[in-house]
Amino acid sequence: MGIDTERIVEAVKRVKPLFMDRERSAQITEKGLADYVTQVDIRVQEQVRQELYELYPGVQFMGEEKDNSGIDFTGDVWILDPVDGTTNLIHDFGHSTLSLALARGGELVLGIVYHPYTDELFLAEKGKGARLNGRRISVSARTQMRESLISVGTAPYDKRQARETFLLFADVFEKCADIRRLGSAALELAYVACGRIEAYFERNLKPWDYAAGLLLIEEAGGAVTDFAGGKIDFSGKADIVGSNGAIGRLLVDEFFS
Ligand code: IPD
Ligand code: CA
Ligand code: CA
Fold first, then answer.
1. Which end of the chain has fewer surrounding CB within 10 Å, N or C?
2. What CATH number matches the domain at 5-137, 3.40.50.300, 3.30.540.10, 3.40.800.20, 3.40.50.261?
3. Is residue 83 a contact partner of residue 96, using CB atoms and an 8 Å limit?
């Protein structure tokens, strides 16, 4: 089965009015500690799921706001985070994205991160490179920690490791140019892919947070590993370091080990 990337991109972009619906983003349910879902998350997931199903009925669908038991990663699987950055959405912070990936036989082949507030669409196809609104992108060439801008994720839904995590941020902050916290893992990975930041790291991410970003970074010439420098098996939870390669290696060797 061939995948028509243009049609997928069109379907993804059609979610923009839903993201801008402030009435629905005010309809909030708490899923867990500081972990919320709004009617926007639900509607976006349903719209995209339905459109993908009409195009490719044989592909399984994994989405953050549904039960995903029984997904078989030896087959074809869509991996969707309808709204990555729900806390940002609730606060009208202007940085929430949609993240969509396609895995085929255990390999990521398509990754899309769409930022409806800026109309930036990041697209990666396995073996064909990464693009931002059609223009080829690559990771930054910086190799020195002191000139690097590094984004950090706070792993907000499990605060038990908060002290340790923030001490790690302090260690990195002392050595790099500065740190950032955007509040959308998918966007932070996409920013690594296009060279705006040298690296991003966060513990405890789910496949829908990082699958599209992982392919974007790899296709843009960078690397994504866990905190020990190991390969990511994108079918489960993971601690993620996405980088231009050089800065990720420095983080793993000098800060995480
Ligand atoms: C979250 C965001 C946030 C990150 C969390 C994610 P959600 O996703 O990406 O930036 O810190 O770890 O879970 O819940 O807004 O889809
Ligand atoms: Ca997410
Ligand atoms: Ca989400």
1. N
2. 3.30.540.10
3. yes
